[in-house]
Each structure stands twice: as structure tokens, then as C-alpha cells.
Write the C-alpha cells for this entry.
Amino acid sequence: MLPEALRPLGDLARNLRWSWHPDTQEVFRAVDPDLWMSTGGDPLQMLFQVSPERLDVLARDRRFVRNLELVRNDLTEYLTGERWYQTWAANNAQAPEAIGYFSAEFGISKVLPQYSGGLGILAGDHLKAASDLGVPLIGVGLLYHHGYFIQSLNTSGWQQERYPLLDPNELPITLLTDADGSPVMIKIDVQGLLVHAQLWVASVGRVPLVLMDTNLEINNERERLITDKLYGGGTDHRLAQEVLLGIGGVRAIREFCRVTGHALPTVFHANEGHAVFMGLERIRERMINENETFDSAVEQVRAGMLFTTHTPVPAGIDRFGMDQVRSQFASFAPLPIDRILGLGAENFPGGDPSRFNMAVMGLRLSQRANGVSELHGEVSRQMFQPLWPGFDVSEVPIGSVTNGVHGHTWMHPELQKILESPLDDAEGILDGWDWNALDRVDDTDIWTLKRQMRGQMISMARERLAASAAARGMTSDWVATALNPHTLTIGFARRGASYKRLTLMLSQPDRLKALLNDPETPIQIVIAGKAHPADDIGKGLIQEMVQFADQEDVRGKIVFLPDYDISLAKPLYPGCDVWLNNPLRPLEACGTSGMKAAMNMAFNLSIRDGWWDEWYDPEYGWAIPSMELLGNQAERDAAEAEALYELIEREIVPMFYTRDANGIPLAWVAMMRSTLSGLGPKVRATRMVRDYVTEYYAPSAASAARVADNGTAEELAAWKQKVRAAWPGVEVVRVESRLPETVEVGSSHVIEATVRLNGLAPADVAVELVSGEVDATDELRNVQISRFELAAGSDPAAESVLFTLTDVSKAAGLIGYTVRVVPDNPLLASMAEMGLAAVAE
Ligand SMILES: *Cc1c(COP(=O)(O)O)cnc(C)c1O
């Protein structure tokens, strides 16, 4: 029990905002500096362990108490004040009152290890940035008893996994209870069994994160193990977890809102396919509570649902057996099981009829969907094009929001201090940071700061290397001099997935050794990453890397740091000068580690994949050419590795070691300035969350509100049914006064199209001219879509209806075109939405 004067410590420890708020961390450090160190900077653990005597002293320490009150008041102001969203919403009638954000993992802080890698860190950064902006998000996920594994290495460098058991009572989460103190429970049917889950709430600044937990006495052994660990076990286990996340998640949000009085979400965001069963539960609610039909409920749910896909490879998509899903949802009344199965069916060319595809269900149940970088949006449109037959890849209704990273979490605190601005947002100042602040800092100070960052990273690395050497039974005398704070430092850290090509840099070992051992201009490399426990290939790559680094002639110059997690990552990015990423393009959907590096004035040395394809600029780093056209993977690896070495040898090393009289690398420092001012504001997660709000959340809320209007969902469902039924008979019968093959800019042409509407009204469709320049491969480029109008005097009820269009060419040269009919309704978010198009022969 804390003394009265120190009560605010408990409030501060139970809101995870401390994890990105240096002033709050300082308060905790002052409580007991030794304990702060020994708990690894975990406020709650520290409060459990601190002695009553120490607390007594602090309670009487006027300076400590006054400062504590200041910091507590700052939290209150952060939690209750008006932020960006409140101002924005005041001018946007459709701003949602709440948004449900579902994710299988959340990486918020090392003290809540509920993530495995990039997806989780992104979800954590999304919540934090939403909190900073005042966006009313409610996060939903699972509470894993074991979190993700802790990685260590054996003597031969093979990855070892350990799953420490977490005690929820010692985590910064609070059990959700009713007014009488009893835990709030949700119940769900998992494979025919009634499973109970209790709900824990983590406070991520202003954003509540509700975590479901089945580790309860009332459940049997198998049911308890549903939330044992992230992505553990076989597909039955995984299906159970996803049913809990999706179906349970909706119930958990309802309960949370009932107990706390929080507004209910009108927009539901599925972060990756794991969560999309949420759509089924929302359909069920509407069928039962509002007495709606399945189709009408689908329209209602779709309008307010957003699906974000994170993988550019079909193999990365979550799929279950049809039979597995059939038995799970056989008695999910009143939803007809065949309709459920239809949502995830791969009934398109190349699909597998025995599989239930979570991404496909996500796309069918969400009126809006996005990838996580522009390139990934393109790749996703290509990958899912079979769901929209008749439409060009560019028309597939999947957009993109490029990921971002949470500045307060990932930028070095000293650099944050330099950027912090008391001024309102204006040119160059955004969300409280002045991105041009380095203009007022001289080169020497910037360079000194970078050396300090390198030094801090090296202290962390040496501690970890010493512990790892001891655990592997190896000598550790070399650790004290491992890495050098003055040496050009290259970082590489990521999951051990094979497309990330951890060992590409080893392809010419002697050349790499020469770079590491150069007496005048050496480089050093810091590496980290975990392989999935079931991925022996990934573990083999890690072993190859560790064995290379174990060699005496490079030891301490290239190092592998075990157990890549948030606490390792935070000092790692600032400590690097160059961040290396060499995935097989285009398999990196976005990648965020390079963004965190850029935010700390490190340069990217990367294949132009994910976000780097979009924002690469020679001012911010180097592009390793991607040899996608080389069919053979070995050749491609060799060529890309060659280019990588060349860039390091010819450009990076000379630039880093070219110094002025004071020892400052002027060109390098100039690039540090441009990287921070140019990339910083783009890669920040507040930019990402704003994009989600304006491009997705608000339009979704508007769509949901429109179909919620008195019977509109039902009308829309009936209209879609009518259109689908009529569609096989809809046809472009004839197109007249065809365009000439080559045209002049500005020339105009009248085109007439005769269309058979098969009982539909002209207003049910759009007749469109799709035109563009024909390229060498006969594909249309710079596609333009123009709309025909009903011809004057044409009888809309006739068997064939005449439409006309006066087309004014915007480009000259060889043009190609088609005429098509597509369904049209103001409630559709895109012309391609229904995947129906009747194209002229
Ligand atoms: C940022 C981060 C990742 C994701 O990095 P990618 O570049 O997207 O692979 C994974 N793990 C940790 C600990 C991170 O901080």
C-alpha cells in the first residue's frame, strides 16, 4: 500500500504512457535507482519490491512529492485535454465516436510482452499515436500467458526458446469488473465447447486495450490453453484463438462499453486477417437484435468495417480447412453455415475449394481495405484481383496507408528534446515537434550526439554479449572491447524469415572481413532477430551468422545480439549510422525498422521494397538495386550482394571517413539533417493514424450511418440481389462511331453504346468508357474512365437502351478502349465493389 502522498505513483505505473514519457520515467528512477535498474525499468515491479522505509522517506521528501504531483497532473491533462481529433471532429460530422481496433498482437512495452514482431509493434504504435492524437480507439486482443519466447543461443549458435510464465496480477493491466466487484466474463462457443474469458484492460495513454484471457478455473484444460501463447500449436489451436479474437472481441468491447460507459464503436478495424471473424459476430448481433436478414446485416457490417492486409505473399495468408470452419460455426445461429463458408471460399481461378481464406473473408466483409505501403497496395491489388473479375488490377478496391512509427517511443530522448517545440503546428512544426530544429544545432554537436548514441548502444550490446557468451560457455574477455563508438556502424535486425536474407552480407566472406578489419576505415555490424520456433531454415541462417561472428578474426566487429525485442530495439536504432535491409522485393509489405532508424538520423541502405520504394531519396540513404528480372534466386542473391558491397566500399565508407579539420564528416552530417527533416514527419505514426482517420475511419463511419438509416441496409441488400440476378443478361450490345486508332489532343468524338439492361433501370448502372494509351505489351496505361449518359429520347424501359458520350482526348497517339457496364449505387464505395462488369466484346 502506497502512502497517501505517493498514491499518484500507482496511477502513473498503471498507465503505459510512462513507457514513452521520459519525465515519468525519471520520477520512477528517483524512487529507487538500483531497483529501477534491476527491474529493467519496470515501474510496477519496482513498486512491488521497494521497501516501506524508502517509501516513508519519499513521502516526506517535499521536492519529490511536488514533482510527482506535476507529472501526475501532466498525465491528467494528457488524458482529458482536447487533442487533434477533438478539433478535427468538431468540423467533421461523420467523425466516429469510437473505433474498435482488433489485433492478435500488441507490442507496447517490454513489460507487456504480447507481440512477436513487426505486426505487434505496429499495432502498439497505432494505439500510442491514436492516444497522442486523441483518436477514440478501443484496442482488443488476447492476453497470452507466455507472451512470445525469449531467445538464447547454444554453443553452436542454434536458437533456444524459453516461454516464461506471466502472472497477470503483476502486469500493468486491470481486471474488468462489474459494480459488485465480480469479474466481467464473456462466453463463446469454441468447437462445440462453451469457453469463458475474463477481460483485462491496459491503459495505453487515452486508449484502452481490452485483453481476453481463458486461463480460468471454470474452463477445462484445453480451453484454458487457448490463450497460452502467440500463434502456438496446430491449426485447431489457431482457429480457437481467432474465434476468440473475432467473436469474443466484439463481445468484449460491448462489455467494456457497458461497464465503463464508453461509446460503442461504429467502425471496426481488423489489423490482419486473424481478427475478421468479428464480422460474423456483428452479423449475428444484427440478425438477432434487429431482426435483420443475413444479407441486410452484411451490408450494415461491411459499411463500418476496415480490413488491413499485411502480407504480399499468398503463403502468408491465414487459411483453415473448410471442414474445420464448418464444424466451428455449424451452430452459429441464426447465420446459415453455407453463407459463412461462402465468405471465405476461394471460388475464383487458382483458388483451393477445400480452404477457408481469412483475407478473402476480410475483403468480402469490409467495404474498405488497405495494404501498408503504396507498393504493397499495388501487390495486394494484383494478388486479390481474382475477387474482382472484369476489373483492371488498378481498379481493385484496396488502397494503402503506409505504416509509421511512434516518435516518442523510438526517437532517442536527447533528440526528442531538441525537436520539442512549444509552438502551435505551423510550417515544419507538427504534433509538437519542430522537424527543422537541427538547423539551429551545429555540426559538431550533432556528431557528438550521434557518438553518444553509438556509445549507449554499445554498452547495451556488451552487456548482452557477455551474458550470451557466459550462457554458451564461451570466453568473454573480448566483450569489453567489442564494438567501437567511433566506427561506422551498420545495423540489421528483423525476424529470421528467409525472404529477409539475413546472411546475404556473408556471400563474399573475405570481402566482408576486409571491410570489418580495415585498419583506417573499418565498419562494424550489429545483428539481431528471432526465427519462428518452427522455422528450422530461419534458425539455420541465424546459426550461420553466429558462427561467422564467433570467428576470432572478426569477433567483436560483427556481433549477434540474442533476444530482439523492444528493449533491445530502442537503443539499437539510434546507435547505428546505417540501417541495412535486403529483402527479396516485393516481399516486404512495409518494414518499419528502417523508419525507426531514420528517425534517429541513420541512413537506410535497402532494396527498394515496402516504404523505401516510396520514400527513397539519395538524401536519405542508398537503394540496393533489386534484380527481380533474374529468374534464378542464386544469381539474384549474388548480384544484389555484389551491389551491396560496392555501395559500402565506394560510397558509404568514404563518405563516413571523409572529415574536416575538426574530425567532422560534413557531408554525412548534412545527410543526417535531411534525413530527419525530410523523412521524420512522414514516417511518424501520427501521420499514419491521421491517414486512417481521414481516409478510412471517417468514410466508414459515414457509410455505416447511411445504411443504418431506416431500412437502407435492407434496400441495399435487395438491390444487390436484384443486380446479381439480372447481371448474366446485362450486355453491351453495340458500340458505334468508334474512336480512331490515333487521336490528337483535344479532339472530340461522339460514341454511342447500346446496352441491354435485362430489367435493370439506367440508374442501376454506369456505362463507362475505359480508355488509355496502349503500351508495348498491349496493356492500357494512364487509364481514364468516362461515363456515358442516357441518350435523349432513349426509352429506359426498352429491351436495348442507348447511351452516349462525347469524349475529349487528353492524350495523343495510339489509344485503346473498352466500353463496359457496372452496377452503380451511391452506397457503393467503388465501382468495382460488387466485382461485376459487362464488357463490350
Ligand atoms: C520495428 C521492430 C520490428 C519490425 O521491423 P521490420 O523492419 O518491420 O521487420 C520487429 N521487432 C522489433 C522488436 C521491432 O522493434
